[in-house]
Each structure stands twice: as C-alpha cells, then as structure tokens.
Amino acid sequence: MAKCQGCRDGAAFPFQIRTAFQPIVDIQTGKVHAYEALVRGPNGEGAAVVLDRVTETNRYAFDQACRVSAIRTAVAAGLLETDARLSINFLPNAVYSPLACIQATLQAARETGLDPARITFEFTENERLDTRHVRSIIEAYRTMGFQTAIDDFGAGHSGLGLLANLQPDVIKLDMELVRGLDESLPRRIIVAAIVRLAKELGIKLVAEGVETRAELEAIRSAGIRYVQGFLFAKPELDVLPTIAAGAFAIAKAA
C-alpha cells in the first residue's frame, strides 16, 4: 500500500482490519440510501477494541487500512449492485496531505469499479481538530467528487462553530439527541432548530441511533429524511444488511 510523503515513517497497524456495515435508510422511499462502514478486528472485535490499539505512530496506517477495507469489502458484498452510497469514517489527524493520502483510496476505488462520487467520508466532532486543516481536506475531497459528513453532531467539542467553519455535505445527529426524542420536548426543540439550520445551509441530515417506532415517528415529524439504527438493522460483518421486514413497512408508511 502506498504511503504519503509525510507519513511514510509511521508504524504498521498490528492486526488485520475488517469491516461491518449498517444501512442508512431513506424513509421517504423505504430504501437504503447508504451503508456506513464500521471498523472491526480480525475476529469481529468491536470498534473500541480496535481503536484502543491506535497510536500516534500507527494512526496513518490504521486510517488507510480502514478506507481500503471498507471499499473492497463493500464491493465484494454487492454494493455495485445497488444505488447506495458508501460512508467511511476517517481520522483527519491522520491526513498529512489530502491529495497524497487519498491515493490508496482512489486506487481501491479504481480496482473495484466504485465511483468515488458514491463515497462519503465521515469525521467526528468528538476529536479535537485543526479547523483549517479539516477545511483543506473537505475542499480537496470535494474537488475529487467525495462528500463529507460530521458524525455524532451535538456530542463533541465544537458544535455549531465547526459547522459554520467547515460546511460539510451531511450532518449525522448524535444518538443522544435522538434517543427518547418522542418523550423529550427539549430534544425536539433542539432537533427542530438543527433541521432548520441544515435546510438553510443546504446540508443533508441523518438521525443516528433510531431504535423504536416512536423515535422514528418523532424523526419523521421533525422533517428528517435519512435514519440509521437498530430499528432497521444492526451492523453485520462483511455483508450489506437487509432492512428488517417490519422496519421496511414502517419506513414506507412514514
């Protein structure tokens, strides 16, 4: 795997990366809009176990391995037979040069036949970020046809300031805002305000962590079109999950 100039001295990641997938559902059509790629260990260990092994010296190798595994595994699982996008988490602090460090991703996309325009790169606001550096990544990725998303929005350090400075294509509402939305007036007021902001900024909104029909109905009432959560499917290792039959009916009815 090619390494970028500034990261070539980094250490290799100590074990094989595998990928699980969870669908993001369009509740207007009942179809899968995208699959989020979630990192797993060689025996299916959860993300926390894998992330505990990420260090300053192997962060670049880890980030590259996650991207390539996500693309190769998704295509092998049948992504090209669908219209769905692929959403990949990445570490901005692992990117030394946006143009140099994207080469392995582009190579994997070319080799598998995946159009880069179908890829969304997610980064979380839980990580402390250099805003100018992240903006340079977003701008470079946009010129190459990629989309970008802020994951776990509403749970991190920068919140609205990060949104104002970066202007991503997608915001993913943190599950703590979504959980119990149907029973919490303060949460509904906050989510309604974010919906208005996203609409005015031309940003797509995804609600994460939807687990109950009541939460889904509250999300639908708030005007959010795209949802992700156990109500529809749990992450599955190496395969693209199908939407649960009952949830599919709920989504179409919504």
From TrEMBL:
Annotated InterPro entries: Cyclic-di-GMP_PDE-like, EAL_dom, EAL_sf
Database matches in Pfam families: EAL (PF00563)
Record-annotated EAL domain positions: 1-249
PANTHER family for the chain: BLUE LIGHT- AND TEMPERATURE-REGULATED ANTIREPRESSOR BLUF (PTHR33121:SF15), CYCLIC DI-GMP PHOSPHODIESTERASE PDEF (PTHR33121)
Protein name: EAL domain-containing protein
Organism, scientific name: Sphingosinicella rhizophila
